[in-house]
C-alpha cells in the first residue's frame, strides 16, 4: 500500500489530480458545516449580482440565489450521484464479467450477448431513453448512467477473468476441493481486482460528466435542487449578460473531472505490476554516477604480464537506493581481463554478477541504481566517465553483450535478419544490401544451417539454441574486443549448451575476442574460462587460473560451491548444500561476509575489512586462513 502511494506520488500529474480531488471531496463533505446561505432561498431583488458583491462571494443567479452555496451543494450532489452510479455499474458489471469469464460456454454467450445489446446503442442516447421511460429525476439519472456503463465493466473484467480462469493455481484450488463460488471469490477476484479498480478510476470522471449532461438537459436534478449540470443548464440562458452564472459550474465540472482523470491514469499506472519496479520514473540512458569516498580494501594487485589489460575494473561500487535503504549489490570489485582471455565470474544467485556486468556499460537502471565509486578502464579510457553519446559508440560495438534468455531479448515481431541488420547499421555505415549480406554471413559464422532462410524468420520460429546463436551473432556483429556473456547457456539444455560453448571457444580462437563469462555453473567454467573470479555478496572472494582454482580452492566458500556440484559417475559424492543464506545487500556484516555460513569461522573473521591477498602465483583469496591444497588423491574434478 505504501509502495503504491509512493509510486502514485512520484507521478506528478496524478499527485496533482489526487490533491485537487481530495480538496474538492473534502469541500463537499464539510459543506453542511460551512456558514453558507440557504442554496434554494430566492431573492428576486438581488438577482444576477456579479462575483465579489456584498454577501455573495461568487454572486447570485437569476433568482437571486447564492452561487457559492449552490455550487458547493451541487458539487456534493454531482459527486454522490457520479460515484454511486460508478459503484453500481462496477458491482453489476464485474459480477457479470466474472461469471461469464469463469464459467464460459453458454453462460458466457448468454451474458455477453446481453451486454452486446446494451452496447449496440450509442450510450448517451440509451441513457436518455432510460430516463424517458423512468421519468426525469436524479435517482433515475443515476440508474440510467449505471446501466449504460455496465458493459465497460463486464467486458473488461470478463477479459481479465478468461485469461486466468484456467491457470495452474486455479486448477490447484479446484483439486483441493474448493467450490466455484470460493474459487471465484478467493482465487479469481483478487487477481482481477486491479482491473476493476482501474476501470472504475477511469470511468468515474466520465460518469460524473454524464450525470451533469442529463441534468443539463433537465432530466437529472429537478429545480430547485442544484447539481453542477443543472446549474450549467440554467446559466446558459444568460451567458451574455451574466456569464459567471454558467462559467462557475462549468469550471467546477472541469476541475472535478480533470482531477479524477489525472488520478485515474496515475492509479492505472501504479497498479500495473510491471511498473512497480520503478519503471514509471523513466530510467536514465545510463547509470547514474555519484562517486563517493570508499575505504579501499584491496590494493591494486596486478596479475603478472598484465600491463596490456584490455579491461581493468578498479574498486567498482554499485548501489541500489530504494527508499531510505541502500543495497550494496557491488561492493568494491576489481578485476582485469587480457586480450583474448576468458574470465569466468561465478557465484550464487544474487551475489552481484549481473549488476557488475551491467555496471561496466552503464546499463544498470537508474533509478534505483547508482554507481557510487570505481573505474572501468577499457583500452585506457574510463567508461564510467564517458558521456552517453560516446558510451553508445562503445555499447554493442567494442563491447557486446549476450543475455541469459534469448527469447526475451530478441524482438518478437522483427525478423532475426533485420535485427542483425539493425545492430550492424547502428555502428557501421553499411548499405542495407551489404548489411543483409553480412547478417547472413554472421548467422553462418555461428553455425546456423541455411542462414539465408533463417534470416527471414521470426524468433519464435527458431529453437532455443538457435536463438542464442542469433544473440551471439548479434554480439559479434561489430567485431567487439570484449563480449560480456551473462549466463548465456543457463536457459538451454545440456546438449545445446555444449554446442554454444564450443562455438564461443572457436570464435574466441578465431577472432581473439575477450570474454567475461558469467555463470553459476562450474562445469561450464572449466570448459571455457582461462581464469575464474568467485563472487560473494558483491565482492570477489577468490581469483585464479581455472584448473588450479577448481582443483585446490583456497576460500571456504569456493570449496563449498564446488562441493555443491553433483559429479557424474561418482554416486558416493553427496552434493552438500551450503547452510544459511547470503547476507542481505542492505545489511552487510563487517568482516568476512561468508563468516556466518563458514564452518572454519573464528572471531578474527568478523573484525575489520578483509583484503584480497595474493596467495600463490596468479591466485588471490579474500580469507585470513586460506585452505591448503587438497591432499586426497583423485579429488580432481571432471
Ligand atoms: P546475480 O549474481 O544473480 O546476477 P544480481 O547482480 O542480479 O545477482 O543481483 C545482485 C544484488 O542486487 C541482489 O542482492 C539483488 O537483490 C540486488 N538487486 C538487483 N537489481 C536490483 C534492483 N533493481 N533493486 C534493488 N536491488 C537489486
Ligand atoms: Mg544474474
TrEMBL record:
<dbReference type="InterPro" id="IPR025966">
    <property type="entry name" value="OppC_N"/>
</dbReference>
<dbReference type="Pfam" id="PF12911">
    <property type="entry name" value="OppC_N"/>
</dbReference>
<dbReference type="Pfam" id="PF00005">
    <property type="entry name" value="ABC_tran"/>
</dbReference>
<dbReference type="GO" id="GO:0016887">
    <property type="term" value="F:ATP hydrolysis activity"/>
</dbReference>
<dbReference type="InterPro" id="IPR027417">
    <property type="entry name" value="P-loop_NTPase"/>
</dbReference>
<keyword id="KW-0812">Transmembrane</keyword>
<keyword id="KW-1003">Cell membrane</keyword>
<feature type="transmembrane region" description="Helical">
    <location>
        <begin position="188"/>
        <end position="209"/>
    </location>
</feature>
<dbReference type="InterPro" id="IPR003593">
    <property type="entry name" value="AAA+_ATPase"/>
</dbReference>
<dbReference type="GO" id="GO:0015833">
    <property type="term" value="P:peptide transport"/>
</dbReference>
<feature type="domain" description="ABC transporter">
    <location>
        <begin position="311"/>
        <end position="562"/>
    </location>
</feature>
<dbReference type="Pfam" id="PF00528">
    <property type="entry name" value="BPD_transp_1"/>
</dbReference>
<feature type="transmembrane region" description="Helical">
    <location>
        <begin position="79"/>
        <end position="103"/>
    </location>
</feature>
<dbReference type="InterPro" id="IPR050388">
    <property type="entry name" value="ABC_Ni/Peptide_Import"/>
</dbReference>
<keyword id="KW-0472">Membrane</keyword>
<dbReference type="InterPro" id="IPR000515">
    <property type="entry name" value="MetI-like"/>
</dbReference>
<keyword id="KW-0067">ATP-binding</keyword>
<dbReference type="InterPro" id="IPR013563">
    <property type="entry name" value="Oligopep_ABC_C"/>
</dbReference>
<feature type="transmembrane region" description="Helical">
    <location>
        <begin position="115"/>
        <end position="135"/>
    </location>
</feature>
<feature type="domain" description="ABC transmembrane type-1">
    <location>
        <begin position="75"/>
        <end position="264"/>
    </location>
</feature>
<dbReference type="GO" id="GO:0005524">
    <property type="term" value="F:ATP binding"/>
</dbReference>
<keyword id="KW-0547">Nucleotide-binding</keyword>
<keyword id="KW-1133">Transmembrane helix</keyword>
<dbReference type="GO" id="GO:0005886">
    <property type="term" value="C:plasma membrane"/>
</dbReference>
<dbReference type="InterPro" id="IPR003439">
    <property type="entry name" value="ABC_transporter-like_ATP-bd"/>
</dbReference>
<comment type="similarity">
    <text>Belongs to the binding-protein-dependent transport system permease family.</text>
</comment>
<protein>
    <recommendedName>
        <fullName>ABC-type dipeptide transporter</fullName>
        <ecNumber>7.4.2.9</ecNumber>
    </recommendedName>
</protein>
<dbReference type="InterPro" id="IPR017871">
    <property type="entry name" value="ABC_transporter-like_CS"/>
</dbReference>
<dbReference type="Pfam" id="PF08352">
    <property type="entry name" value="oligo_HPY"/>
</dbReference>
<keyword id="KW-0813">Transport</keyword>
<dbReference type="GO" id="GO:0055085">
    <property type="term" value="P:transmembrane transport"/>
</dbReference>
<feature type="transmembrane region" description="Helical">
    <location>
        <begin position="245"/>
        <end position="264"/>
    </location>
</feature>
<comment type="similarity">
    <text>Belongs to the ABC transporter superfamily.</text>
</comment>
<dbReference type="InterPro" id="IPR035906">
    <property type="entry name" value="MetI-like_sf"/>
</dbReference>
Amino acid at each position: 500500500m505504501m509502495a503504491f502511494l509512493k509510486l502514485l506520488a512520484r507521478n506528478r500529474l496524478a499527485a496533482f489530480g489526487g490533491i485537487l480531488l481530495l480538496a474538492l471531496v473534502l469541500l463537499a463533505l464539510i459543506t453542511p458545516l460551512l456558514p453558507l446561505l440557504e442554496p434554494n432561498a430566492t431573492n428576486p431583488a438581488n438577482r444576477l449580482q456579479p462575483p465579489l458583491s456584498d454577501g455573495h462571494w461568487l454572486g447570485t443567479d437569476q433568482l437571486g440565489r447564492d452561487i457559492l452555496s449552490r455550487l458547493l451543494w451541487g458539487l456534493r450532489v454531482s459527486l454522490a450521484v457520479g460515484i454511486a452510479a460508478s459503484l453500481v455499474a462496477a458491482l453489476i458489471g464485474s459480477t457479470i464479467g466474472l461469471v461469464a469469464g469463469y464459467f464460459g460456454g453458454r453462460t458466457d454467450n448468454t451474458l455477453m450477448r446481453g451486454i452486446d445489446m446494451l452496447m449496440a446503442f450509442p450510450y448517451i442516447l440509451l441513457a436518455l431513453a432510460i430516463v424517458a421511460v423512468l421519468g426525469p429525476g436524479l435517482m433515475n439519472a443515476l440508474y440510467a448512467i449505471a446501466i449504460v456503463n455496465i458493459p465497460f465493466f463486464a467486458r473488461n473484467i470478463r477479459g481479465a477473468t478468461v485469461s486466468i480462469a484456467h491457470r495452474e493455481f486455479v486448477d490447484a484450488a479446484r483439486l483441493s476441493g474448493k467450490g466455484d463460488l470460493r474459487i471465484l471469490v478467493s482465487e479469481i477476484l483478487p487477481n482481477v481486482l486491479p482491473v476493476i479498480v482501474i476501470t472504475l478510476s477511469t470511468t468515474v470522471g466520465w460518469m460524473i460528466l454524464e450525470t451533469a449532461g442529463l441534468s443539463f438537459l433537465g432530466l437529472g436534478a429537478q429545480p430547485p435542487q442544484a447539481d453542477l449540470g443543472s446549474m450549467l443548464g440554467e446559466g446558459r440562458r444568460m451567458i451574455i449578460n451574466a456569464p459567471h452564472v454558467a462559467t462557475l459550474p462549468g469550471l467546477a465540472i472541469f476541475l472535478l473531472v480533470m482531477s479524477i482523470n489525472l488520478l485515474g491514469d496515475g492509479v492505472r499506472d501504479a497498479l500495473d505490476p510491471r511498473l512497480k519496479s520503478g519503471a514509471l520514473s523513466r530510467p536514465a540512458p545510463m547509470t547514474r554516477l555519484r562517486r563517493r569516498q570508499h575505504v579501499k580494501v584491496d590494493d591494486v594487485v596486478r596479475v603478472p604480464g598484465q600491463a596490456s589489460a584490455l579491461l581493468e575494473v578498479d574498486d567498482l561500487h554499485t548501489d541500489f537506493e530504494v527508499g531510505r535503504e541502500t543495497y550494496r549489490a557491488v561492493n568494491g570489485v576489481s578485476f582485469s581481463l587480457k586480450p583474448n582471455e576468458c574470465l569466468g565470474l561465478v557465484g550464487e544467485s544474487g551475489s552481484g554478477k549481473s549488476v557488475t556486468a551491467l555496471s561496466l556499460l552503464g546499463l544498470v537502471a537508474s533509478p534505483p541504481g547508482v554507481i557510487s565509486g570505481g573505474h572501468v578502464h577499457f583500452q585506457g579510457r574510463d567508461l564510467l566517465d564517458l558521456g552517453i553519446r560516446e558510451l553508445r559508440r562503445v555499447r554493442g560495438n567494442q563491447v557486446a553483450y549476450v543475455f541469459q534468455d534469448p527469447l526475451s531479448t530478441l524482438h518478437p515481431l522483427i525478423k532475426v535478419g533485420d535485427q542483425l541488420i539493425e545492430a550492424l547499421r547502428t555502428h557501421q555505415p553499411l548499405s542495407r544490401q551489404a548489411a543483409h549480406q553480412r547478417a547472413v554471413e554472421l548467422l553462418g559464422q555461428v553455425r546456423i544451417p541455411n542462414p539465408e532462410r533463417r534470416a527471414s524468420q521470426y524468433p519464435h520460429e527458431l529453437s532455443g539454441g538457435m536463438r542464442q546463436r542469433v544473440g551471439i551473432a548479434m554480439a559479434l556483429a561489430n567485431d567487439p574486443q570484449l563480449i560480456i556473456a551473462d549466463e548465456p547457456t543457463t536457459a538451454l539444455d545440456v546438449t545445446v549448451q555444449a554446442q554454444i560453448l564450443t562455438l564461443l571457444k572457436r570464435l574466441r580462437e578465431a577472432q581473439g575476442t575477450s570474454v567475461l563469462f558469467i555463470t553459476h555453473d562450474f562445469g561450464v567454467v572449466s570448459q571455457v574460462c582461462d581464469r575464474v573470479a568467485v563472487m560473494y555478496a558483491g565482492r570477489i572472494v577468490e581469483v585464479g587460473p581455472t584448473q588450479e582454482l577448481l582443483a585446490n580452492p583456497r576460500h571456504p566458500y569456493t570449496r563449498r560451491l564446488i562441493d555443491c556440484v553433483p559429479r557424474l559417475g561418482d554416486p558416493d559424492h553427496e552434493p552438500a548444500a551450503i547452510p544459511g543464506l547470503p547476507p542481505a545487500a542492505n545489511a552487510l556484516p563487517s568482516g568476512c561476509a561468508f563468516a556466518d555460513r563458514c564452518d572454519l569461522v573464528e572471531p578474527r573473521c568478523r573484525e575489520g575489512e578483509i583484503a584480497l591477498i595474493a596467495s600463490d602465483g596468479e591466485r588471490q583469496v579474500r580469507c585470513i586462513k586460506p585452505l591448503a591444497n587438497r591432499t586426497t588423491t583423485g579429488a580432481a574434478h571432471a
